[in-house]
Please model this.
Amino acid sequence: MTLLIAAGLGCARQDALVAPDPEVTFAAHRSGDRLVLDRLPSGAHATLAPPSWFHDADAPRFVLVAGGETRAGVWIVGRTRVLVRRDDATTSPRTAEVLSEWDEGTIRLTLFQSDGPTLGVDRFVRTRADGGAPLTPAAPLHGTYRAVVRDAQGAPVGWLRVRIDPPESRVYDGVLPAEIGDPLAAAAVVALDGEVAWIEEHGSGGR
Model:
């Protein structure tokens, strides 16, 4: 993938953007302690960054910033829940949520949005070219893993993907229904990134 230099993401620090595949509706990659949203469903670029050093215990884990404006606050509750509020205040309305669970040793996600559909995400499986194995704590953390996204009736409506190619940054992308907003797409990346990081720290698959 080609690296582009961001002209400005609405924050003091500049991050390199990764040019997404043309087919995807959103894409992101990790950059240090933050996630760079190379493409959101709205077409915008954004960052998910920790709040300033001077914040209280109730502050969100990440603040979604696009065009110099805060679009959402993102809280991580335990290891299995990512909660999204309209801004970075705990009193602001909840707008989206992502739940992760381990089903027979593999990760599944459920995506909720206050004014949109609920989506289920199947287990992540390595592409055939990379061996076809599911993403588990024993899986090699190298290659491309992809999962089908389904609506409430179980029909496929999109997909999510993570590309792991150490020492390069992990890359997340996918195709989501048009009604899925930027904050929920960002929260899905946070949830998946957290699970992959947990496997990296605790798993036995190695690289």
The chain has one domain: 3-202.
